[in-house]
Specification:
Layout lengths: L2 H14 L12 H16 L4 E2 L2 E2 L1
Antiparallel strand pairs: 1-2
Helix pairs in contact: 1-2
């Protein structure tokens, strides 16, 4: 699993658990998921992923 797969899974989990407000994105789920993925990737850019663990 690479960074993009991980961030997509996190974003989808947040969406499925109603933690994200689709209304702010005119119910464009794809745009909302991409936005959340980019936020997560930005936070992870300084970390290395190794065997599923963030270092």
């Amino acid at each position: 699993m690479n960074r993009n797969d991980i961030t997509k899974a996190i974003a989808e989990d947040l969406l499925n658990n109603n933690a994200l407000d689709e209304h702010n994105f005119s119910y464009d789920t794809a745009a909302l998921l991409e936005y959340v993925q980019n936020i997560i990737l930005e936070h992870l850019k300084d970390y290395s992923l190794l065997s599923g663990t963030i270092f």
